[in-house]
Structures are given as C-alpha cells and as structure tokens.
Amino acid sequence: MQLIRPDININFLAKRKIALSFSAVMLLVSLALIGFKGLNLGIDFTGGTLVEVRFEKAVPAAYIRAAITPAGYGNAVIQEFGSPEEILIRVQNQEGVEASTISTAILDGLTETFGADEVEMRRVEFVGPQVGEELKSSGMWAVIYTLGGILIYVMVRFKLRFALGADAALLHDIIIVVGVFSALQLEFSLSVVAALLTVLGYSLNDTIVVFDRIRENFADNKQKKKPEDEVSVCNASINQTLSRTLMTSITTLLVVFSLYFFGGEVIHNFAFALLVGIAVGTYSSIFIASPIMLSLEGKFEMSEEELKELEARP
Amino acid sequence: MQKYAPWKFWLIITVLVGSVMGSLPNIMTIPSWWPASLSQPMNLGLDLKGGIHLVVDVDIEKVIEQQVSDNINTIRRSLREEKIRYKKLGNDATQVSVVLKKPEQADKAARLLKKVMLGYEMAQPEADTITFTISETEAKEIKSYAIEQTIEVIRRRVDALGTTEPVIMRQGDRRVLVQIPGYEDSARAKLIIGQTAQLEFKLVDEKGDLDAAVAGRIPPGDMIAYFEDGRPILLKKRTELSGKDVAMARITIDSQSNQPAVSLKFNNQGGRKFDRLTKENVKKRFAILLEGKVQSAPVIQERISGGTAQITGAFTTKDAQNLAIVLRAGALPAPIKVVEERSIGPSLGQDSIDQGLNSIIYGFVAVLLFMLVYYRLFGLFANIALAFNIVLIAAAMSMIGATLTLPGIAGIVLTIGMAVDANVLIFERIREELNLGKTPLAAIDSGYDKAFSTIMDANITTLIAAIVLFQFGSGPIKGFAVTLSVGILASMFTAIVVTRAITYLAYRNKKKLKSLSI
Fold first, then answer.
1. Is A93 an interface residue toward B (CB < 8 Å)?
2. Residue A226 lies in a domain
3. Least CB-CB distance to A251: which of B370, B467, B476?
4. Cα B125 off chain centre by
5. What is the pLDDT of residue A72?
6. Nearest CA-CA distance, residue B368 and chain A, Å
7. Domain membership flag for residue A59
8. What ipTM was estimated for this complex?
C-alpha cells in the first residue's frame, strides 16, 4: 500500500509565501492570546492547593461549596473531573494561612458533611508559592536549553542556517501549541511543559529527516553537470521524504490518540498538547524549516570547501 | 546481499533472552534460581502506587542563628575568666559582637577570643568593638548537619506511622523529600512530620510582676509565655529540661481528669535534672511548653526521683498519640515547612495503571495493524522488532531500577509510535531504491545504509530533549524522560539491528528475487 506516489512532486516551496504568511498570522494570534487572554496556569506554577475527591454518588457543586465554606474556602474553584462523581477543588495560596494544611481543612469539611464513607481522597497536590516560581523558571529554562542544545547539535552536524531554520520551526510549534492552550483556556501544567519538550524532539526529528535529504541532494547536485538551484533541490527533498513524514505522523498520532482517549483524565491535557504539537510539527517541518533555511541563503552561505567537507561526512 | 556478521546474531539472541528474562519478574513470580540481576520488577512511582509525597523546607537560617547566639555564652565565659569587662554583647543572624569597657584591652581580648571562636572569622577590632562572623565552611557544615538530623528525625517519625519502605532524602540545598508509599492519611503525615516538637520545662517566676511584664517591663532573665487559650504567664528564661532529656513517651490517661495525656520517661541525665528541679522547688510551679506554648503549669508537690513526668492539656486521644510519636522521635533541629505535596489515593493509582496499560495495548495494536497493512511482510518484520522493543524497555527499566510513573507510561506509548519511525525511514528508502531500478537485494542494502545517518541524527536530537527533561523535570516528569530515553535507545537497536537480521534471514538465499513485499 502506498499513500504517496513515488513520483510525487508538489511544489511546496512555491507556496512558501502563503505558508509563511499563514504561520505568521497563527503566531501573531497565539502571541496575542497569550499576552491578552493569558494562560490558565495550573497550581504547578501559580502555587495553591488541589484536592481531587470521588463521591459515592454525584453531589451538586453547591453542596460541596457549602461543605467547605465554614473552613473559609467558599471561594474555591469546584469542577467535575472526568465523571460527575469525581470533583476537583482548587484553592489559591493565601497570605498568612499555613498553606499545606488547606487540603486537610477541605477534606475534613467534606467528610463531616457527607460522611467518611461517601468521600474518597483521590489526590492532593499542594505547591508553595516559592516552589511555583521555581517550577515556572525551570520549565522556561528547560525549553531554552533544549532549543540551545538542538541549535548546537544541528550546527555541528549541518550548518548554522539549517540550525536556525530548525529552531525557528520549533519555536513556531511551541508558540502555537501554547496559543491553543490559551485559546481553549486548558490548564497549563508541568506535564504540558513536558509535552512541549517532547513536541520539540518530535518536530525536530521530522525536520532533521528533511534536512538530511537536502544535504545529501546538495552534495549529489554539485556533481551534476548542470546543477539545479537550491530551491528545487529542497523541494525535491521534501517530496522524497513526504511519505515517511506522513507515515511517522500517522503512527505517532495513532498512539497519542490512544493516550488521549484511554489514558485517563490526569494525562488528558498532556496528550492533547502532544496531538496539537505533532500536527503542527509535521506542518512546520515541511513548510517552515526549509523556507527559513533557504531565506538565510547567502547570509550563511556554504563555501566550496564546506560543501566538500559535508560530502566527506557520513 | 551484504553478509550479516554472525556475532550480531549472537548479540541479538543474548539481548532477546536477557530482556525476556529481565521483564518476567513484572508479570509473574520467578523461580529462585533466576539470575539476581534479572530478578527485580520495575519500581512503581507514587502516582501509580498511591501514597504521600512531600517536600519540606528546612529553616536553616534559624539553625545558624541559634548556633551564633549559643556562642555568646562562650565569649562571656572566656572574658570573665580573664577579667575583661564588656559593655555590650550581642548577635544577629551571622555575627556576634562584643563592645569592651576598656578599648586598650581590645588586643588581648581579640587574641583570647580568636582561640575559642573556632569556625568564625574575626574582623579587625575597631577601637572597643570586636566582631566575629561565622565562616562559610562552618555555616555549610552546620546546614548539612541540620539537614541530616532532620532526615533522621523524620525517618523515626515516619517509621512510627507503621509504613513500609518510605523514601526520605535530601533534595537540593535545604529541602527534604519524603515519600510514604501506600499511606493515605495526608493530614496526619503532615502533622507528624511537621511538628518541631520543642519540649521545654521552665520554672514559673512567682515573684515577678506579670502585669508590668505584659506592659513591656519584663524582669531580667524572665520571659512571657502563653497558654493555648491565650493567658500569659511569667517564666524564667532558663530551660531546665528539654526534649533531649526524654527517653520514652507514650499515651496515657490522666488519673485525675480522665483525659488523654502523654507520659514521659526521662533518660539518666534528664532524670537527675528533674530530680534536682523538683527537690529544690517544692511548692513552686513549673511550666511545660510545647512549641513555645504552655501546656500546663503544675505545682511541684514533692520531689520526683523516678524520672517520669506527665504532660496534660486539652488533648484528644489522637493529639496525644501524635505528640507521643514526635516526642519519642526527638525534636527537629529547625522548624520545617511543607512546600510541596503530591499525594495520590490508592484508587487513583490503580485507575492510572489500568488506563495506562489500556492505552499501551490499544496504541500498540493500532500501530501493528497499520504497519502490516502498509508494509506487508516488511511491516511484519517491523512489528516483531516493535514487540521486542517493548520487552527490552520493560527489562531495561527493571534492571536499572528506574521508576515507572504515569507520564512514564505515556513515554512508552509515545515510543511505540516513534520506534517504527526508524523502520519507516528504512522501508521508504528501500522503496525509493527499488523505484530507481535497483534489484531487491541491492535496494535492501542501500536502504539500510542510506537511512542510517538520518536515523542517528533524528534520534540523537530527541535524546537531547529527553536529557534536558530529566535534568529539569521533577518526580513524574523525570519518569517520562527516563522511559523516553530508554525507549529511543531500545528502538534504535531493535529497528536497525534486529530488522536487518530478520531481512537477512528471510532473503539471504534468494538471489533471484524479483520483488519485495514492502
């Protein structure tokens, strides 16, 4: 079976202006959303307390609120989590309250009102304000270090303009995924950051495969009597790897769908970030990485010696 | 077709046998003769097993300040012995300074104090003032010691909860990680772990003027303390006995009030101190303070030589039980604060395991079918490698003692999708080579050869992301990074080496092969 004909030759790069404009709009919208609407940051980053409980039978949120109001948490965010019996209760850190005891007060309030047999503690998460700040900065640094590490590796294995093209595509992917989280106001937690880093790895994987082929074809092209221009070589490379790009996206999406539908509520957002990221990452390795790399032509031009050196590499 | 080196077959067979053996402990009880290195099942993380996960912050500045202020006594004693008089002696968080009456004695005092103030750096005396600052190495040592002690005390307290295999370890500069698998009562765990358990016995100053003291005129050597209900009481500052003097503490019922109470048994030294305290102060009162709050202030009726005492107060049975535990385990060297908690109830853990397994199975089956339909015989080769890959990941995780978390399961699921990537690369390349008109066998050879460097580049970059994740991630995220890395390495082996061996076995004798089932 073959989805992509072997002689396929879509002129992707002819459409690069459209693709780049489309991406530019997506990026602007994402950045505007992140800037104005903001992210629904989870307690990993804001600090606070999260209590997940399961009731024997579904209880209206108003009753739950009434049960925890005497303890002083009437303003808590109460929401369903996967099923009507499962409830998430979220409280911000408060000045002057020993924050680690908030969950205790909430659970006590619930068991007093509904009885110990009716309520089951599923999960308690508490993040102190300082830890929240630390997680925020370490999450940010993780993304920066990954981008940096990748930049260096691609630079060593390829050339600077390839590395810049790859990093531009990656940044594009991250910003759009974060933008989607902002648009849907999905909870942005530590595990979503992990998903972002995975998307980085995945999207880069895709880009590298294309670049690898471009490098190979550049080298072959140099030996021809009538060398073609860089754009058509790149375009040919994208087409040659198109089948593989789609195949891997399909198999990966298959498993991520499986995670999304069967993996449970706790990793729902993680799986969703992967879904969006893999889709965007596939697009960007075709439409963003190579055009950016090409647009840097001349700025970081390969000299004859460099090309010879490239051919010598494995 | 290129010859396939025999040693590679042996390598594959060894790895295959090893990984099947190494992953079996996860699904069945293994016989006793099984090799020890292959007998460990995977560790399950707290998010799968259920349990309490706490990170506590140790107030180490307080410990250093305490240490610095303790040295005031050292200075006082030394100066008194040499008959050097001083006007002022005080300290802040990291410094002690003394102001002398006669500036001309400064040199002599400096020489003298330098000998006793070990671990401190002395500033050049300014006229009549000598200042000592705690040295960085000393401060570091004190911090380390305080953290070690905190870990020891927490361990004793957690052990008293009757749990198995708690993990208590240092995390970073000033934090301690506490994990109690299989324990649910997060409130009690926090209460038991977090109490400083500062127990103090102090004499009551009966002669002092309490009202004047409350107004701010505290008699020298005295202090004000408060009962739980807010009543003030004037005490001598000096601590007669402390938690260090306690050998044993247990819950009891107070015979007079019929209320729960905690009975204390002092160690030898504590017994002697208590004996002297009660002998010299009959008919006077002393106060028992816990965390700085007065629990009771009984009148000493007679000398008590038995080395026992009883703490009464408005305790519930549970309070008294918890108090006995923390007093038995000893006091924390510094106040601690819970700064992070991630506790999972047992039912959520089991749900996560079930859901995780489901998503692995469904994802695996979907990929198997897809590969089979799309690449036919070669799809089957890739599927064999993929199954091998999963067994290899399970074995590797078990052997290196890695911890499987829920994100870790997600990592395995993702690996299943991405592991076939290497095969996709190779197979697509073989198809291309066939289209270029190469013979099937030549196409296989050059497909593998040409795809190799691409596969390396693609996987190494993913590995970079995984390593960064491991460095920066905490707890469960680390688990994800581990399975992702193990998965990448395992998939490179199975997708390149193993499928190559299979294709070699399948096609080595078919020199006249016309087409490939790919």
1. no
2. yes
3. B370
4. 44
5. 87
6. 9
7. yes
8. 0.86
